[in-house]
Structure to design on (378 residues):
C-alpha cells in the first residue's frame, strides 16, 4: 500500500490553531493538582493545543518513578472536560490503548523505547484499529529511520490517518551537551520517504536541560517543523521525572513568544526571481560536481586496473587517511566544516572502493575506453 499523501493534513486536525502545533504538559502526571494546575496555566497562557502527561512511564532502570497508572487517566479526562483542551498520554501496549479509549481520550503517543519494538507497535496498531484518534509516534531510541517509518506504517495501515512523527533525538554514547543527539538529517530523510507527514520536534528530550530548549525550538522552526512537544511542569524542581528539562508554564510562554516564526514560502515576485536565479546556478554547480565525480571515478578505475596487474589490494588505508587529512585542511580554508568534508570523502572513497572491486573482479582486462565507460553493475 502506498502511504503517499495519505496522512490527514495538520490544517484539518481539530486541535490545530496554526503553526506551531503545541503539545505541552508535564513529563508525568503526578497528582490531580499538579496535572490540573499545569494544564490551567498552559491554557491561560494560550500555550497548549494538546495537553500531554505520561501515566505509564517506561523507566530505563527499575526503581525510577513508573507513573501513577490508571488513576491518572481520570485526572486527564477531567482536564479535557473542564478546560476544553484535548489531552494525550503515552501508550506502550494494547491494554494501555484500551484504557485510553475507554476514558474518552482522543490523542496518544508511542514512546521512543516502544517505537523500537515492532511487536509492541503492531500490538498497539491492532488495538487502535477503528478508533478516531490522533497518534504521535516518537523516533526510536536508535538512529534508525527504517524502524521509525515502520512504526508509522503499522499505525497507518491500521486505518489511522491523523498521525504525526515526533523527533525526540537519538541515543548517544559518551558526554555531550544534549541528552539525545538530534541527528537532524534523520527526520528530514523520514519526510522525504513519507511526504505529507506532519512532524513535531520534542526539544525537551533532545536537550535534557531547560536552558538549551530555545536553541532547539528555533532550529525546529527554521527547518519548517509543524509543531513542538515540550514538557512543562507547574513546579519543575519537584518533578518526579525529567526535572531538569521541564519548564514552568510562564517560562514556556516567554520562550515560545521569543521564537522567530518564518513562513514556509513566499510568493513575493522579487524574492521568487532571486531564488530562481540562484537555484539555476545551484543546479548547474550540482551538474558540475557530478561531472567531476565521474572523472574521479574513471581515474579510480584506471588505478584499479594497475592494482589488478600488480595483484595489490583495493584498500590502501594510509593513502585514504592522507587524502582525508589534506582535504579537511583545504576544506577549512574554503569555509567547509571538517565533519562535512570527512563525510563527503568517506562517501566518495566508498564508491571508489566499490568501483575498484568491480574492475578487479572483471572477467576481462578492460582497455582505457572501456574503463572510462564502465557503468557500475550495482
Ligand atoms: C516522554 O515523552 O515523557 C517520554 C518518555 O519520551 P521518550 O519516549 O521520547 O523518551
Ligand atoms: Mn519525559
Amino acid at each position: 500500500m502506498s502511504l503517499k499523501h495519505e496522512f490527514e493534513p495538520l490544517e484539518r486536525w481539530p486541535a490545530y490553531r496554526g503553526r506551531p502545533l503545541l503539545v505541552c504538559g508535564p513529563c508525568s502526571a503526578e497528582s490531580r493538582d499538579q496535572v490540573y494546575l499545569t494544564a490551567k496555566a498552559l491554557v491561560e497562557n494560550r500555550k497548549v493545543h494538546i495537553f500531554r502527561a505520561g501515566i505509564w512511564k517506561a523507566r530505563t532502570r527499575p526503581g525510577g518513578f513508573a507513573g501513577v497508572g490508571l488513576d491518572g487517566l481520570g485526572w486527564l479526562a477531567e482536564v479535557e472536560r473542564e478546560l476544553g483542551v484535548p489531552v494525550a498520554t503515552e501508550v506502550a501496549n494494547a491494554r494501555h490503548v484500551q484504557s485510553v479509549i475507554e476514558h474518552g481520550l482522543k490523542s496518544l503517543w508511542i514512546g521512543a523505547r516502544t517505537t523500537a519494538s515492532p511487536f509492541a507497535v503492531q500490538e498497539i496498531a491492532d488495538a487502535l484499529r477503528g478508533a478516531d484518534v490522533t497518534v504521535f509516534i516518537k523516533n526510536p531510541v536508535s538512529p534508525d529511520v527504517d524502524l521509525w517509518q515502520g512504526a508509522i506504517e503499522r499505525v497507518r495501515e491500521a486505518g489511522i490517518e491523523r498521525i504525526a512523527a515526533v523527533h525526540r533525538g537519538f541515543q548517544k554514547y559518551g558526554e555531550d551537551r544534549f541528552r539525545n543527539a538530534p541527528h537532524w538529517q534523520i527526520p528530514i530523510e523520514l519526510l522525504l520517504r513519507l511526504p505529507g507527514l506532519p512532524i513535531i520536534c520534542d526539544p525537551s528530550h533532545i536537550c535534557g536541560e531547560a536552558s538549551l530548549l530555545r536553541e532547539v525550538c528555533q532550529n525546529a522552526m527554521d527547518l519548517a517543523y509543524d509543531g513542538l512537544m515540550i514538557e512543562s511542569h507547574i513546579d519543575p524542581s519537584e518533578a518526579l521525572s525529567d526535572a531538569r528539562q521541564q519548564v514552568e508554564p510562564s517560562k514556556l510562554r516567554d520562550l515560545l513568544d521569543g521564537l522567530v516564526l518564518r513562513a514556509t514560502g513566499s510568493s513575493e515576485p522579487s524574492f521568487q526571481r532571486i531564488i530562481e536565479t540562484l537555484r539555476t546556478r545551484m543546479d548547474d554547480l550540482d551538474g558540475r560536481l557530478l561531472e567531476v565525480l565521474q572523472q574521479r571515478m574513471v581515474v579510480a578505475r584506471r588505478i584499479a586496473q594497475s592494482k589488478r596487474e600488480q595483484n595489490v589490494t583495493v584498500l590502501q588505508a594510509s593513502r585514504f587517511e592522507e587524502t582525508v587529512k589534506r582535504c579537511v585542511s583545504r576544506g577549512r580554508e574554503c569555509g567547509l566544516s571538517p565533519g562535512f568534508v570527512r563525510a563527503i570523502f568517506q562517501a566518495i572513497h566508498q564508491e571508489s572502493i566499490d568501483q575498484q572491486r568491480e574492475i578487479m573482479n572483471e572477467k576481462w582486462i578492460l582497455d582505457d575506453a572501456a574503463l572510462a565507460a564502465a557503468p557500475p553493475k550495482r
